[in-house]
């Protein structure tokens, strides 16, 4: 006979007066101090601050928990101090009589109380986002506690409780009928029954031991890391200690993760892997894990609703209702079979293959076989073409993948290119670029779980095996079998009724190309009544692909293993596999973005796409000023490559035209152009020009600046972010003036005007010491600091001092020039000055290696004293064509104007976020060169360096690519392609707001 709700649920602990609690502390534990009620679902917990300054927790236990169980909890903690010594644990303190348990009498009942050491740290009592490594640490801690308790056997009897998942179904059946919403109760009961059926199949084989039973987010204490993320350090409450399935400990931990902001079923995977590394899971435990998560969530919902109904004053229980329902919703959002297959994949545990796979040769072709089973496939195999819808298909250039009709267009193209084929098919397990969408913060469903067949003409569809046909909605059929997956067909004009069919029997027809969507073919090992999705996102790819195996063998005789004809394998390696190869062959000092970088293989405008067809908003790439994959530029380069590419010592028109176009964009005195391959070379050449023209070598540079990696450009780079030893390793000819940072420098705000005169005086002092400078070099807009304008008049004063000393003024426009600032085409225009030498690169080539140095004729001619100048690719026909085309598109598409308007819109949105989020100390910049500076304190301006790195990682998860800059690495550098739209700006603002609101 099932237990009643009253049998499972525990009534509230009787009310306690402050005097009663203080009395028991004094009389039974010899403590005098203050108390604060901490709240609890069933017990009464008080924070105790003693007169000596020590902190404790007094736990007054619910009378439903017997003394043996309470003593066992104390014993378990002592046991773990030996078996898991690295954990923070609440050790019990003995009373004045030497016992852990002390009586506390009320008018109605005698209660037991215990005094525990207060465990430093704070539990997570909200639903903020948890980063993967935080979740992994939570799983690791759960594993250590589980492993540490493996040999523990308490002295007394510890009864089973409602939290023992072996009782979960009985608990839910008892409590769910009392839920006020019948629909919710029905869902919880249905989910619990389904999960229980799965667990029951392996229940007798699941290991049992004493488990903590509540290693959850709000029962684990965390330390706050430098980046603001919580790091699990210990566990506080052993109130649910009991015997139970060992894997239930992990199930409880994983369930608690599911209510957090941004969580999905895949969010628990780092915890599972970390737990498994400490206490390996057996195959049966892996099979039981997700059903136990469903059962745990079901118990939480049913018991929580019941508690609130019968104890309306229990604020602790009431506050948990929303997050308990969120856990249940997430736990039941994916089929158990999918999650189990995903878990097996994560733990590298092979699933037993179904018998139908071994008998694949007995299957008939869906397209029909002449005389029998599979051998008849071979002729059909040769007559099927494959259409590539992945990120690797070159036909999807110029944003064609965003067209609604692109799949149909590519199918028609494939049929036209292969006139002998009977049909075109798609690839199972392919991440379709054609299904990707831009301006989203979550992964879209791009992974194909089936295959489409597009026949040239009307085609008969046959049953590949004997089974039962079940008509579906519209032109759909399901063919079931007793010993294998169900076959789902869509797009069929059926010629059979519901009922049994034999292998090879015609089921219906599919129209020819152009007369429908083709035939959708999908296998599913879920219950035949469950129609699987056709496409899913990549986070659970392994699970879904195991449940929906490749049906290509029903079309093709012998699937190839290489991603070619007949296989569902996606060509290419995973991002992680490729990263291993990169680290082996590519010098590691050439760093990559992100801890786990996605594999980016395509771009379009201001979007990037990885090999799983996940799109990202590119807020970082100031190199691709026009945007990625610009068709006008790619066509121009293609034409020029076909025509000629050589070096600039040959005589041809494009190098002349590009040089003329550049000088037209600058003040008239800057009339002579050198073309080079990069910004580093441009700055290096600019310095050499200054040395040649002045016959000196000393150079004045600005602090916290980056100019390049060649000898000369690196010498004047003073940023410690790029070179930690920059301040102590500069050559003697480099002289640094302080960074004119008006936000956090020596002179701030209205005092920033002092930077100019002080720099000018430093130059005058160099002259007096006999070391007059050859040049002063600086970014004309303080890009390396995060897009900060120089103080008004700064360059005017410093340029004047430099020229008075006979030196030249070099404006480094590599990052900030070319219209990115919107209001000004060149950064030096903001300062109202004209430099002697201008260096440009990056935007100039839209990613092609191209840079330039523009100066006056007499300065350029002075270089003759150094010999002649030559750059192999800098002024080549292809490079010159690139430079000309970039200028054309900038002009024709109004990208400078777009940078101005969209940049102003974006900056206004960032300033609005700063009003709500104190972490934002300032918003710098203009146009589409912006910087968001994060500080821990707006008064001290302590840089939030670690937080900035963590925020960038979280923004990547939300589909926005951005990175830190400045010497303190606490500024988000926001310099996207200049085709950025208001809509995309809104997406970025929303993502940043999400991160700052819900955590990173």
Helix content: 25-40%
Through-space gap between termini: 49 Å
Rg result: 35 Å
Instruction: State the total count of DSSP E strands.
Output: 38
Structural class: alpha+beta
Main-sheet strand order equals 11-12-14-22-18-17-16-20
The backbone outline, from C-alpha atoms, is flat
Q: How much β-strand is present in the residues? A: 15-25%
| Alpha plus pi helix count | 28
How would you describe this structure to a colleague?
With 1000 residues, the chain is of the alpha+beta class. The protein is built from 28 helices and 38 strands. An eight-stranded mixed β-sheet has the order 11-12-14-22-18-17-16-20, covered by helices on one side. Strands 27-33-32-31-30-28-29 form a seven-stranded mixed β-sheet, with helices on both faces. Helix 6 (182-200) runs antiparallel to helix 9. It is flat. It starts with a helix and ends with a helix.
Describe the SSE topology.
Blueprint: H1 5-8, H2 18-29, E1 33-37, E2 44-50, E3 55-60, H3 67-83, E4 92-93, E5 102-105, E6 110-117, H4 132-148, H5 168-175, H6 182-200, E7 208-211, E8 220-224, E9 230-235, E10 242-245, H7 246-257, H8 269-278, H9 283-310, H10 315-331, H11 336-346, H12 355-358, H13 377-381, E11 384-386, H14 406-417, E12 423-425, E13 447-448, E14 451-455, E15 459-462, E16 467-471, E17 476-480, E18 486-490, E19 493-494, E20 499-501, E21 506-510, E22 519-524, E23 535-536, H15 541-547, H16 575-585, E24 600-604, E25 607-610, E26 615-618, H17 631-643, H18 653-664, E27 672-676, H19 679-694, E28 699-702, H20 711-715, E29 734-737, H21 755-768, E30 775-779, H22 794-804, E31 808-812, H23 827-831, E32 837-840, E33 851-855, H24 857-862, H25 877-892, H26 895-916, E34 920-926, E35 929-934, H27 945-957, E36 960-961, E37 963-965, E38 971-974, H28 982-998
Parallel strand pairs: 11-12, 26-36, 28-29, 28-30, 30-31, 31-32
Antiparallel strand pairs: 1-2, 2-3, 3-6, 4-6, 5-6, 7-10, 8-9, 12-14, 13-23, 14-22, 15-21, 16-17, 16-20, 17-18, 18-22, 19-21, 24-25, 25-26, 27-33, 32-33, 34-35, 35-38, 37-38
Helix pairs in contact: 4-7, 4-8, 5-6, 5-9, 6-9, 7-9, 9-10, 9-11, 11-15, 17-25, 18-25, 21-22, 26-28
């Amino acid at each position: 006979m099932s237990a009643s709700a009253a049998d499972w649920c525990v009534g509230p602990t009787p009310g306690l007066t402050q005097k009663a609690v203080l009395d028991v502390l004094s009389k039974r534990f010899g403590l005098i101090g203050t108390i604060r009620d901490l709240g609890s679902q069933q017990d009464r917990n008080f924070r105790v601050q003693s007169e000596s300054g020590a902190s404790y927790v007094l736990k007054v236990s619910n009378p439903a928990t017997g003394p043996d169980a309470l003593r066992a909890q104390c014993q378990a903690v002592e046991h773990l101090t030996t078996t898991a010594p690295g954990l923070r644990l609440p050790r019990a303190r003995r009373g004045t009589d030497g016992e852990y348990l002390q009586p506390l009498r009320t008018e109605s009942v005698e209660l037991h109380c215990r005094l525990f050491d207060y465990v430093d740290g704070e539990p997570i009592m909200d639903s903020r986002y948890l980063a993967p490594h935080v979740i992994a640490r939570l799983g690791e801690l759960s594993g250590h506690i589980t492993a540490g308790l493996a040999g523990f056997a308490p002295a007394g009897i510890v009864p089973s409780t409602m939290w023992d998942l072996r009782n979960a179904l009985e608990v839910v059946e008892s409590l769910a009928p009392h839920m006020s919403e019948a629909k919710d109760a029905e869902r919880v009961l249905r989910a619990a029954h389904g999960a229980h059926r799965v667990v029951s199949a392996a229940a007798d084989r699941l290991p049992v031991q004493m488990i903590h039973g509540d290693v959850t987010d709000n029962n684990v204490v965390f330390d706050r890391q430098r980046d603001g993320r919580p790091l699990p350090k210990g566990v506080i409450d052993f109130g649910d200690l009991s015997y139970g399935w060992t894997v239930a400990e992990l199930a409880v931990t994983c369930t608690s993760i599911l209510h957090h902001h941004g969580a999905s079923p895949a969010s628990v995977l780092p915890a599972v892997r970390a737990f498994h590394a400490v206490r390996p899971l057996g195959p049966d435990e892996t099979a039981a894990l997700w059903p136990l998560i469903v059962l745990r969530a079901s118990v939480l919902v049913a018991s929580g609703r019941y508690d609130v109904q019968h104890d309306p004053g229990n604020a602790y229980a009431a506050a948990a209702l929303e997050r308990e329902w969120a856990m249940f919703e997430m736990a039941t959002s994916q089929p158990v079979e999918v999650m189990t297959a995903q878990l097996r994949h994560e733990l590298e545990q092979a699933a037993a293959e179904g018998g139908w796979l071994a008998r694949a040769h007995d299957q008939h072709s869906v397209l029909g076989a002449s005389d029998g089973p599979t051998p008849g496939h071979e002729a059909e195999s040769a007559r099927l073409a494959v259409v590539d819808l992945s990120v690797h298909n070159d036909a999807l250039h110029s944003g064609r993948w965003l067209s609604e009709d692109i799949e149909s267009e590519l199918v028609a193209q494939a049929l036209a290119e292969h006139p002998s084929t009977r049909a075109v098919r798609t690839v199972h397990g392919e991440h379709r670029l054609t299904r990707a969408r831009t301006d989203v913060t979550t992964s879209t469903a791009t992974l194909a779980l089936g295959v489409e067949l597009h026949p040239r003409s009307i085609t008969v569809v046959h049953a590949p095996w004997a089974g039962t046909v079940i008509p579906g909605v519209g032109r759909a059929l399901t063919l079931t079998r007793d010993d294998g997956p169900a076959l789902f067909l869509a797009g069929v004009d059926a010629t059979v009724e519901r009922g049994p069919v034999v292998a090879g029997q015609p089921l219906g027809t599919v129209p020819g190309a152009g007369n429908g969507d083709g035939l959708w073919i999908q296998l599913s090992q879920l219950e035949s009544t469950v129609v699987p999705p056709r496409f899913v996102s990549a986070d659970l790819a392994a699970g879904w692909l195991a449940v929906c195996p490749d049906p290509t063998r029903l079309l093709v005789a012998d699937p190839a293993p290489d991603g070619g004809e007949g296989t569902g394998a996606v060509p290419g390696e995973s991002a992680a596999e490729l990263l291993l190869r990169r680290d082996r062959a590519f010098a590691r000092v050439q760093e990559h973005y992100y801890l786990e970088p996605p594999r980016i293989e395509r771009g379009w405008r201001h979007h990037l796409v990885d090999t799983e067809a996940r799109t990202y908003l590119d807020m970082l790439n100031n190199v691709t000023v026009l945007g990625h994959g610009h068709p006008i530029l790619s066509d121009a380069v293609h034409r020029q490559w076909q025509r000629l590419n050589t070096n600039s010592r040959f005589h041809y028109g494009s190098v002349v035209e590009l040089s003329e176009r550049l000088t037209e964009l600058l003040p008239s005195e800057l009339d002579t152009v050198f073309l080079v391959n990069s910004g580093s070379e441009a700055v290096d050449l600019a310095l050499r020009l200054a040395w040649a023209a002045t016959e000196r070598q000393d150079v004045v540079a600005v602090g916290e600046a980056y100019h390049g990696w060649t000898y000369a450009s690196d010498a004047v780079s003073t940023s410690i972010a790029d070179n930690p030893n920059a301040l102590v390793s500069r050559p003697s000819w480099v002289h640094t003036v302080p960074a004119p940072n008006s936000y956090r420098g020596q002179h701030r705000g209205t005092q920033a005007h002092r930077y100019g005169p002080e720099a000018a005086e430093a130059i005058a002092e160099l002259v007096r010491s006999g070391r007059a400078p050859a040049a002063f070099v600086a970014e004309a807009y303080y890009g390396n600091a995060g897009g900060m304008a120089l103080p008004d008049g700064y360059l005017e004063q410093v340029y004047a001092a430099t020229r008075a000393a006979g030196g030249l003024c070099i404006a480094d426009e590599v990052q900030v020039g070319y219209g990115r600032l919107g209001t000004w085409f060149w950064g030096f225009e903001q300062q109202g000055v004209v430099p002697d030498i201008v260096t440009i690169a990056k935007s100039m080539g839209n990613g092609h290696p191209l840079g330039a140095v523009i100066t006056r004729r007499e300065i350029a001619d002075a270089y003759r004293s150094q010999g002649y100048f030559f750059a192999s690719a800098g002024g080549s026909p292809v490079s010159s064509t690139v430079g000309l085309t970039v200028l054309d598109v900038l002009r024709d598409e109004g990208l400078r104007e777009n940078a101005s308007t969209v940049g102003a819109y974006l900056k206004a949105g960032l300033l609005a976020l700063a009003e709500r989020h104190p972490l934002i100390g300032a918003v710098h910049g203009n146009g589409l060169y912006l910087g968001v500076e994060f500080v821990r304190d707006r008064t001290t301006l302590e840089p939030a360096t670690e937080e900035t790195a963590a925020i960038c990682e979280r923004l990547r998860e939300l589909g926005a690519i951005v990175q830190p800059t400045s010497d303190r690495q606490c500024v988000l550098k926001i310099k996207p392609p200049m085709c950025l739209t208001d809509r995309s700006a809104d997406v970025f603002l929303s993502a940043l707001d999400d991160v700052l609101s819900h955590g990173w």
